[in-house]
Task: structure prediction
Amino acid sequence: MVTAEVPASVSRVEVATKQLPQTGGGVRRRRAWPRFGDGFAANGRAAILIVPSALALAESNWLVNPRHSDFAKFRVHPPEKFSHDPRFFE
Result:
């Protein structure tokens, strides 16, 4: 797991679920979302794309474009071992 400090001045775009590809309902629709992220990275408009989580729709994921010039403003911390509650996978 990697964490980072991101200044408020870093460019970002936030999208709502209704702005994401609609190729059907439920999980099938969410499978199209990675291509949306690929397009974001390719157009280089911002360093961060904030999208609804496909697993927990009330939460957000931050997708980072390391090719964007604002990426240099990130303060990335060393990786840490990710630990989880094993009951999550029961």
Q: What stands out?
A: The first strand starts at residue 4 and ends at 5. The chain has one domain: 4-89. The chain is about 20% helix and 20% strand.
